[in-house]
């Protein structure tokens, strides 16, 4: 079966337009078109180079249907001005149906089950890249859309049960670059001898690629409680070093996609004027015998991820939030470990502050600290809304980390000054 990610965008547009044309009772007066176009510039003051210079556009169409439902189609375009290819993708594209006790959504969609602000360990259906300062600052941690069917049943007691079936496996971006960096490090330790990275075999398209998840939620006191389970594939391929006799002693980094179980528990509620949330997940990957060997870069062991956080808005309008993030699988930035070493659990502190001193002026600050090694990533952004349709942004991010700290490797990429303009329509 051909991957739907490889289907050209125009094919999606044609299919959805045909579907819209066939819907009885749909009219142009019921259609809503929204979007924004902008330019983003990022200058790396550590590297002395322009890190990003891009034009981007986002467009969405929503059409009320003749029955109780709607059609949504989203498009994303990116045109790099400092090198690279232009990209045009279909984002979320789905049809909703609403009934008395159930809702249905069919198509490409983002399914976010988390309660925390930014990082959500229980929201595992959509593939996400590793955590980064840019993703935190832009709020782009929701993940890549997947082709899925989602249905929710609303209980008379006020809770709900939700089921999701994902039709295809979509891996997370970035694994190739991460493994290439590991291979380069191994190669350097071997005196420059080459270490190749073997791409993983595709997940089979015989029906075993289908992923599924369920979630139930109830109100307990003044807190919402969510219990979830996911059965699918790990977004990142498992990896290990394959040794060969003689020289060079390492032939390659081998990789393989594997199945995973994810169990989740999340809560959200208020105490006084403050909001509180917790998320707890436990991942159980499929065991591969080769990962018990000396060259394992991935682990066979299950691991816990947890978030505890709170936010509060003061009378002057300042909103602050703080979170403690624990990752038993290791780094939030790198899903792989040192070859042959045990995974090193990491604890992070995430703080966010937002303030609007007057209408049209918004300030935001984000601080992510690794409590294990003391490294810190700090980012700030100012937004000026010239009109309802036009806004300007300026930002700064900076890494403070000693040599050997996890964040030290990000200095050249994350020490940035940014500026941008966005026009909405």
Q: How would you describe this structure to a colleague?
A:
By secondary structure, the protein is mainly beta. It has a domain at 360-425. It is 9% helix and 50% strand. The chain has helices at residues 9-22, 133-138, 175-189, 411-414, and strands at residues 31-44, 49-64, 69-80, 87-98, 102-109, 146-154, 160-166, 196-197, 211-220, 223-233, 238-243, 250-256, 259-271, 274-285, 303-313, 319-327, 346-358, 361-370, 376-385, 390-400, 416-424. It has an 18-stranded antiparallel barrel.
Secondary structure elements and their pairing?
Layout: H1 9-22, E1 31-44, E2 49-64, E3 69-80, E4 87-98, E5 102-109, H2 133-138, E6 146-154, E7 160-166, H3 175-189, E8 196-197, E9 211-220, E10 223-233, E11 238-243, E12 250-256, E13 259-271, E14 274-285, E15 303-313, E16 319-327, E17 346-358, E18 361-370, E19 376-385, E20 390-400, H4 411-414, E21 416-424
